[in-house]
Amino acid sequence: MPEIFINGAAVQAEDNQTVMQAAKAAGHFIPYFCWHPQLSVPGNCRICVVEVVGDGGGWLDIACNMPVTPGMQVLTDSDKVRQRRKDTLQFITLNHPVDCGICDKAGECTLQDYHYSYNGEPSVSRDAKVHATKHYDLSSRIVLDNERCILCTRCVRFTREISKTNALGVIDRGDHTLIRPVEDGAFENDPYSDNVIDICPVGALLSKPFLHKARVWYLKPTPSVCPGCERGCNINIWHRKSEWKLKSLDAKQNARIDRVTPRESPDVNGPWICNKARDLAQVFERARAVAPMIKGGPVALDVALAGARRLLALAKRPVALVSSWASNEELAAFAATIAPRFACHVKSDQAAEVGEVVQDEILIRADKNPNTAAARALFPALPADPKGAFPADCDLVLVWGEGFSFADLPPKARIVYLNSWLQPENGHADIFLPISTMTERGGHYTNFLGVVSGFEACFARPAGVVDAAEVFNALSVPEVTTVQALA
Ligand code: SF4
Ligand code: SF4
Ligand code: FES
């Protein structure tokens, strides 16, 4: 392990590390644009320059591409270093429009941050800025502002090295250099394309759904887990901070998913997610079921629960179809309360949609449910022919979550249905109970590798909605009065 000295402090570096890696691991800050820990090193932005102390006055070199050598002495913030970074920023912003006031990256832009740290002065150039394409449709999801692009090539390398679509490239030379997609539409079909928005160090690559929707400092990231497949990628769900609530007539404006970004997790998804997680608003913002019902007629929650409890007490051969979107905590609550009364089978709440990538070698898994592993550790899977789950004298089925066709239920069995969404089946159940979604409660999922990831509530659950665990507790308690507190 070579020992090096950063700003006079001894650092034990790893063999084959660069100065950037050793400095970062030891907590020393060096700015960077083009370097990314998961991508190859192009060394093109030059902002990471550091001073190496040596004979003849030493020299300046880029930290991201300089290997450590024993005894090396590095200064990360000397006068020479600061002057070189200032000069570099003058070049980088030579043709930059500096339109931070209308840029979605403001608040997260390292160019803005480093400008104020190392430059802070207007351009010294007397020439007019060279203009480029201001609004280029890179895909149906992403818009490219070439004037803001600093040509770090992170986006290009991402498609070559991570998503492997080779979908982006660099064309032309000098002031006319542009990032462009290849012509066969590979970027449009890259299921990981939105990661380039996150890794673009400036506001050149922007999400169309999020374009000019909110300043990021008005939003709060809540740690969550993508339920889009059994990988269970760790994510942040961004939504409006309560102190920055919009005075809007539409209350949903303050309780909506504004954007989704990856939450780095080395054991699950690294720093990446697929586009399905970015589109979770489309899943969670479907019309909600908020009224408990008996045979399609709205009733109070305690009346619906009392009805379900009666059906359960009378049932001789009840079957439960367990949700693969249920959290570990909900599964434990079910197992500890009413599960012993049922023959239980785990169903798939969601299947792959038409046109969706079903499985790949990167992250995407064929099972489109986040907690199949934990559910199947407790209960057997639903047979391939779902009708095989029901004995001839089955007289009650508890259906928990989406994804099961009511046409496959035994015709004479009574149905207790727990679901979050407004769907026609709700009215066909004997008892319907509207339950919360994972964005309205905390919990954990266990992915197919056995890694447990936690998620937190983003929003309050709507009036009339209960947590499934509360339903199970209520159904296991004989006294009606104990459930009235849930209403
Ligand atoms: S668009 Fe962004 S990520 Fe791509 S080269 Fe330009 S600055 Fe870098
Ligand atoms: S790979 Fe699966 S869990 Fe990860 S973001 Fe995509 S759909 Fe979600
Ligand atoms: S981060 Fe080192 S040259 Fe860009």
Strand numbers in spatial order across the main sheet: 15-14-20-19-18-16-17
Uncertain ranges: 480-487
Ends apart, CA distance between termini: 63 Å
Average pLDDT score: 95
Helix amount: 10-25%
Kindly name the structural category. Answer: alpha+beta
Q: What is the approximate shape?
A: elongated
Compile the SSE list and pairings.
Blueprint: E1 3-6, E2 9-12, H1 19-25, E3 49-53, E4 59-62, E5 73-75, H2 79-92, H3 110-119, E6 136-137, E7 142-144, H4 154-161, E8 168-171, E9 178-181, H5 195-199, E10 205-207, E11 219-225, E12 234-240, E13 259-262, H6 275-278, H7 280-284, E14 293-294, E15 297-298, H8 301-314, E16 318-322, H9 328-336, E17 343-346, H10 372-378, E18 396-400, E19 414-419, H11 424-428, E20 431-434, E21 443-446, E22 452-455, H12 468-475, H13 481-484
Parallel strand pairs: 1-5, 16-17, 16-18, 18-19, 19-20
Antiparallel strand pairs: 1-2, 3-4, 3-5, 6-7, 7-10, 8-9, 11-12, 12-13, 14-15, 14-20, 21-22
Helix pairs in contact: 2-3, 9-12
One iron/sulfur cluster (SF4) is lined by residues 226, 228-229, 231-233, 269, 273-274, 276-277, 363-365.
Question: Short description, anyone?
Answer:
The protein contains 13 helices and 22 strands. The protein has helices spanning 19-25, 79-92, 110-119, 154-161, 195-199, 275-278, 280-284, 301-314, 328-336, 372-378, 424-428, 468-475, 481-484; strands at residues 3-6, 9-12, 49-53, 59-62, 73-75, 136-137, 142-144, 168-171, 178-181, 205-207, 219-225, 234-240, 259-262, 293-294, 297-298, 318-322, 343-346, 396-400, 414-419, 431-434, 443-446, 452-455.
